[in-house]
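Dear support,

I submitted the protein below through the web form. The confirmation email said the job was done, but the results page showed an empty box. After a refresh the structure appeared. I'm attaching both so you can tell me whether what I see now is the final result or a partial one.
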Amino acid sequence: MVESTVNAANAGKDGNPDIATLANGTTVVAYQSEFGATGGVFEVRFQLIDAQGSPIGSPVGLGQQSSVTGGGAVVSGLSDGSFVVSWIASGNVLAQRFDANGVSLSPIITVDDNVNIKALAIEPLSGGGFVISALHGVASGGGSAAVLYNFATNAATTFTRDIESSSQFGGSGNGIKTLELPTGYFSVWAAANDEIKGEFHEDGSGNETIFFDETFGANGGIDGTVAAAELTDGSVVVAWAQYGNIRMLMPEVSDEGSFLPGEIANANRIDETTQPDILALSNGNFVIVWAAQDPATGDYNIKGQTFDSDGVPVGGGFLVNDVTDGPQVKPGVSEISNGGIRVVWQTNPSGNLDVAFKDLTQAEITAGTYTIVEDSPTVADVEITGDLVQGEVLGSGPPPTDANGIAEVTYSWYRNAMPLGQSLSGEIIAGANGATYTPVQADVGETLGVLVSVTDDLGNVSTFRDIADDVIANQNDPVQGEVSIDGAEDGVTVGETLRANPSLSDPDGLGVLSYTWSRDGIALAGTNSADYAVTGADLGAQLSVTVSYVDDFGATERVTSDMAGPVGSAGPTEDADLIIGGTGNDSLTSLGGADTIYAYEGDDTIDGGAGADRMIGGPGSDTYHVDDTNDFVGESRNWAGHDLVYASIDFRMGRAHIEDLYLTGPALLGAGNGLANEIRGTVGDNILDGGKNNDTLIGGAGNDTYLVRAPGDTVIEAAGRGVADTVKAFRAYKLTDNVERLYLQTLRNDAGEGIAGVNGIGNDLDNTIVGNPFDNVIVGREGRDTLKGQAGADTFVFDRAYGPANVDRIIDFNVNVPDEGDILKMKGSVFGGQSAGVLDSQLFTAGTQANDSNDRFIFDAASGNLWFDADGAGGASQILIATFEQNAVVSFDDILIY
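What the results page shows now:
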């Protein structure tokens, strides 16, 4: 059968249907209808439909109402074949009874005039009569209670309000269902706070048993619709919608006839579901129908599933509606004579609300139009584990499991936790949202709880909780803060009064403070005040103070300050003073005597004055004034800073961690250390030795001597300051500007052999360059240079333009030992473009002038002069390029062109 429309054509809205099957096989559909030119006028109507699905007559209206609320009308067939319709209108609960042909058998009965009725249901009684049940607004607390209105006979127009739930529920629960059972009444409803409540009332006794109290906590996803049915075997089925699932409960019946909670199972989870209705079939099975949202379109369809009497699905799920345009919602279901079912629902084709129905056969409701996805329950063993002590890690049990998969698990830890349904009450601990939690001071003495919320991959949410079985015990917390000493910031001297300044906090509580002062770590008896007067007994010692107290949990806590001192004299004298600086930038000056000065932190200036003083700067960039050969400067490699010594005496840095040395007054010698030093001379003839590292040596106005040892040493000599400045080089070296002399020093390896490669290069002054006893390369460059190779096979290089201002004097060319190996190395581009290699003999002549056009180099042994003639015996003049002493002899093979 295809779906059909129940209501007559109507420009207004028709919806909120309910259905019942009468004893003669006819079904009656009650629904809400809007009509009128402008809408807003409603009435409840019903339509009779025969067993074959054909309408019997036209819809019957029950009178116009200014409003019809409460979800429309409810209808039920009675034991004598008649039926009753009930609805809520204008704040009243109304009812009216009709025969099987739709003829009125009673006037409209006012059942209740409470304006806060929220839901209705009708249950026919097997012995005649019926019960209307409602969620009833009550005066106290503004909540709701389940109320039953008992009509003793089918024809009764009066009733007794003889059963009312004693439980009060705030909020807006809006679904209820009551069943007549052999031993009494069973009511189930959707209460506030997402609770499903169930009560069993023994017939005639007035007693009640809350056998089912399922609480899901705030935002638990209950949509307010609840359905129930009694099966042919006397068992009961309850269904409701939660988190897009149809959840199903089958309570158990005890031997005494009372009800016990049954297992909760998910009947369906293929898409977002809501608004279930249950029908008990005559064959012992039952059917649940519901509205299911299509995740692709967002529209709702009417779907269903058949179950056997044990709640096991029979076949697959089935789709009811044919029209899928617009949402299909609010289904109701009733059995028809052929063993099939008739489903009624609210449809919305093209935006026009109508009431539709469709018949399905027994085969169609077990055919399996689509597959039901069963939802396995979430399993979680939530238990607080670990020692209930501050600072100890607490666990919440193993991770939850779910056969459908876990989408999300959230944890909330509570302080002062108490049970609240399936949830907890108390203070939610901010930030405590993990599977573990470490109690803090605020938790001491409190009971902790954990609430675990699990969302499975089907969107179902389950909550689990546990509460610790004891309060959290305290763990002693460390003291926070420090104790400082006021008055010690700039050093400590005899006669001062120091004051302890505690800045402390303790999560366990801060007790009364006590004080004990110590000298060099040894407690001083009787020093129990925050103040301490420094005496002569403290001279040279370090002072500290210990602050102690007993916290709120009985633990003794102690905090000791940093050392202050050492204690110094009150001021400088002509005797041996001890002067102590502070942590700032101090200027410490003493008088006569062998003084000891400790500057400590800061960029300090220290002057010991006359006498052999011991000066220790401490961390920072310190400046020292040294005026005695027995003055001692103390600096450590562990102290940051860049230190400077002004020395009016000859000064060697030694192993002290000093960076710079400036000589003053009569001081002549300045020697560095292993650091990269800057050493400055005076107006005298200074000797400046940087030492091993890459140093900067700066001379003054005198004839200074520089000892160059490291490859990165730099010599700085200003113009016009001295005429005989000398570099003694312990490596190959090129003279810097304004330095006149270069002496290459003798270097040997561990075997005593000379180290090669110690060469010297001049500058544009008239230099004196002296080699060592080994093979040297000596380059005079510009100027009238005096060159002395000493022993070894030395090479004298001529690489600059020759002329009267550039005539070099060579002292010892091959005169130290026979066949010494000295050579002259001439740059070909300077000397006529000669070919590289040993000079061609045709280009050399002995005498005082060229003899032919080939002669270029002319040597006169008698005078020791060496000339160069650019054109031989031509017209150009020969130019003197070098003079040789000690009867030196120069031949063509002593000259190498490069």
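Response: this is the final, complete result; the empty box was a page-load delay. DSSP finds no helices and 75 strands in the chain.
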